[in-house]
Design a protein that fits this description.
The protein has 177 residues and is of the alpha+beta class. The protein contains three helices and eight strands. An eight-stranded mixed sheet has the order 5-4-3-6-7-1-2-8, covered by helices on one side. The longest helix has 12 residues.
Length: 177
Amino acid sequence: MIYRFTLISDEKDGFLREIQIGSDATFEDFHDAILKSVGYPNDQMTSFFICNEDWEKETEITLEDMGSSSDVDTYVMGETAIDELVEDEKQRLIYVFDPLADRVFFIELSEIIPGKNLDTPRCTKKLGDAPQQLLDFDQLMNLQPVSSSDDIDESFGDTDSFDLDELDPDTFNIVDD
């Protein structure tokens, strides 16, 4: 079987990659095809995550065996066939390409093509430029973390305990646009 995956980024409008790969290929083969399609070097500790329909990470597939001693199954890209963990169309995955900043590509299994096989993965659609692979220090410091409402407690927005006289304007770097 051939799997056709679609990759998008939440950082770059118009970015899309479509990769066809044999279902029995390894996640490392898929990793290499992604890197080639976006022009990134193979020098980062990347991971895939199998996700549920809400893009919540469930199962991790790492590039290297991290020697985890937990009760959780450990999957390594070079030892794990894609069809071992991905079987259904519309299955969602996340590919972490910048582990320091947790930047990702969102992947969906768009189509399963039965009765055919593919020895070498190929990028069949390439739209837009990929995001920069790694951010420099200044970009990392300006990165806005994604937070959920679970991270906000009852005191959020409590202005009764705020004293304007305690504000030191010299500690803020305010830039006029």
